[in-house]
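Hello again,

I reread your note about wanting to compare the complex against the isolated chains. To keep things tidy I'm splitting this into two emails, and this first one only covers the full assembly. Below are the input lines as submitted, including protein chains and any nucleic acid or small-molecule components. They are followed by the predicted structure of everything together. The single-chain runs will come separately.
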Amino acid sequence: MSRPTDLVQGTLDLLILKTIALEPSHGWAIAQRIRQVSGDSLNVQQGSLYPALHRLEQQGWIAATWGASENGRRAKYYALTAAGRKQLAKELKEWQRLSAGIGLIVGQV
Amino acid sequence: MRTARTLWLRFRSLVLRVRVNRELSEELAFHRECAGTPEKVAGGDSVWEACRDQRGVALIENTLQDLRLATRRLAASPGLSLTATTVLAVGIAAAAAMFALVSAVLLRPLPGAAPASPLVHLERVEGGQLLGDFSYPDALDFRAMSRSYASLTAFSPANWYWRVQNRSGEADGEMVSGNFFSTLGVQPELGRLLNPDDEPSAHNRVVVLSDQLWRVSFGADPAIVGKTVVLNQTPMSVVGVVRAPFRGATLIWAADLWVPITAQPQLMPMNDNGSCLETRNCGWVTVFGRLASGVTLAQARAEAHTVAARIGEAHPLLKSRQATVVAGLGLWSDDRATMGRFLLLMLAGTMLLVAMTSASVGSLFLARMAARQREVATQLALGATRMRVARQFVLEAGIVAAAGTVAGLAAATPLARSLLRLEPTAPANMAVTLDWRITAFAVAIAVLSTLVMAAAPAFLAARASLSLSLARSRKRHAAQRWLLATQLGVALLLLIAAGLAGRSVQLAAAGQVPRRSDQIVMARLDTGRIFVSRADGAALLERIRERAAVLPGVATAVLAACIPPSLCNRGSVFVAGTEPPAAVARAQDFLAPNRPDINWVTPGYFSLFQIPLQRGRDFNLGDRLGRQLVCALNQTLAQRLWPHQDPLGHQIDWPSYDRGQKQKSYFTVVGVVADRRVRLMEPPPEQMFVPSAQTPFPTAQLAVSGALPVERLYETLREAVAQENAALPVLQLHTESDQVRLTLWQPIAIADLAGLCGGLAALLAAIGLFGTLAQLIAERRHELGIRLALGAAPSQLINMVARDAVAAIAAGLLLGAGAGALALQGLRPWLYGVHIFDPLSWSAAAALLAAIALTGSYLAAARAASIPAAEALRCE
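Full-complex prediction:
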């Protein structure tokens, strides 16, 4: 239900791609890692996370496989594809350009 | 790669729907478990839905769902669906068949020729007139002097009697240059094709067969190469079989035999000494080629102009030469234009029929919408978007259109081929096959008719209100009336066209075939086929005529170069003493504006074909070689030459030339005959007749009349020929009405098609009308019941209901009349004796439609008024 209005449009994709670039993870682990790394400031809801995951999979940037999780249950693990790696690099560059721009404006005030 | 992957994922989502859905549920459940909310969290289902949407399943699934629904709805009213599909299939089949013909004449290359670079055609032009063919030396000069072509070649159509041991037959063929096949890019099926080594006269006794002739007449004999086929009297050695479907370089004739062009003197003797190879006075060779890469048509045209001028300079005694280059091959450009105009008119007619069918199917759908008001309102109330509701109507129409298109396409090519077979003068070498163009055309029509069929219902559904009462809005009634008016308008247009075409054919045929009790049959006899000299041939023809005249049952037998209504040979004639000097006359020959049509006939020709003799006498047996040359003129020619005098006894100069020397050729006028119209839209041509005994000619039409059945007359004619010379082939045996049909086939075809379209349109208009009225009345049943219960007389009710229809009918007729005034202009070139605004055709069509419409509305209204009041009130 809740849309991540606190996230800049499109940055969720970047967060997901960056997170699973380290190692393939399932949805819950991705959400947890984003929360921990951001120092609890970014809390991704499942209503945003899963549609995003499925969209990224549809676009071919990430691929899913079923595997055993830490607690022994079957879980769907997402990993970066070659195309996803390229996309991540592109989005990172874009983000740096954007945040540098915003920084300049905000810094001047 | 990525697209493939995306497609795979979509496919997986779609086909393995159950599994994908289960996996999705499992994934979300795992998340909830980890989050410590094992049972459903708020909004869990919408996450599920959102994920499915991301996978693009929803759109496809919804469409599938709608398709299922639409199919089920169509199946629920099989009568309506079947009628709609059939009606549409008929319309699409007619339009696609007509398009197949248009495509074969205007769009497709020659059957069997390689499509590579563009084929172009050199056309000989003199003084603005298209003459077409060149002489053989001209063709060789063009080949030697032109630089614009990758390959330039020549051919001439021919017709032979072939014989192999005990089998024989008549076949069309082509006499071709050595590079003919390589220019067209045609391949052999067996053996080899002709090549430049075959062109020198020393070894040109070789022939190539068509695949068709090889299979049908030679049983696909694999050892055919090396065998001998006798053409007319000349043995030719078979060197190969050309690969199907190639049947020559014209659309007109389907050729079966190809020989080197240099075999002309033996195989197709023309001219006085038989040979046309050396002289520039025979125009018999068609020149065509492939443009070299990078050369434009305009450049080729400019070059052809220069080359023609150089040939003219080199031979100052000749008529001037002009040439142009046109794209395409198979038809002369003026024939292609005429045929194209004709076919496009026919196509327009069938397209109107499709528009008509779509409108009437649309009105049926619209009428049925009334029954679905509740359904639409319920769907909207349950949260369906308006787009989705509208989409259902489009899908239903789309299914009907798709089914109609498949059925229509299946019928289109057989229909086109049978249309071609019906027309005796239709081109024989047209590729009428189901290709991508025809398919694309039919699909485009289907899309358009889907839009027409679905537009009104979908529009109304999209604007429908939740409240049931509003679904009965005036808007729908307005839409219904418009559809009804459109149908009536198109029907009126088609009926008027049918009336005009029918009347013009009737008038034209009445002018062509005089009423008579006897039958006339005719055949072409060509003594060149049995290789006798010109004089012997003419004598043989005369002996055959004399013999035919005395056979039992025969009233008259005549010979003529040409038989009405076909035209003959044009030539320049002058009042004796006014002719220009020989050089000028020759140079201006083709420029002269009025060159009469000249025919060779025997005595009795005028009375047999009922051409009234107005002054003087008919030819008689005394008009023979060695006597004074005589001629007869028709009224038009006589009036031009001697406007205010009696032409009898005056002399006409019809100059002929032998090696540049003018021959004395004065003809004394002995008779004047009535005019006879030949071309429908043109005034009667100027005509001159000369006795065939004074200008012996080796080929002629033999016409025989008698009070016998046609088959017996055919036998009699064959018998007369066989008794004189059994080897002489009897060609193109046919009756006088066939002869008229050969000339009139285009107007007749238009009349047939217009009649068919008009009849169908009237029927469709009636169907649409009944549907619409029944619906209008069904909706007013309640009201009618109340009126009845309150004491209204049934006749009052009938009037009230019918009045509703009258406005729509009047609007439709006005619409049709307005469109007709514009659209019917296209018919003008094919009409004879009737004006486009022929009052009889217009009023008859309008009266017929109005009668159908009014009867329909009164019947429907009467049925409504006959329902007992109580029942009408109960039905809500």
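For quick reference: Chain B has a mean pLDDT of 81.

B.
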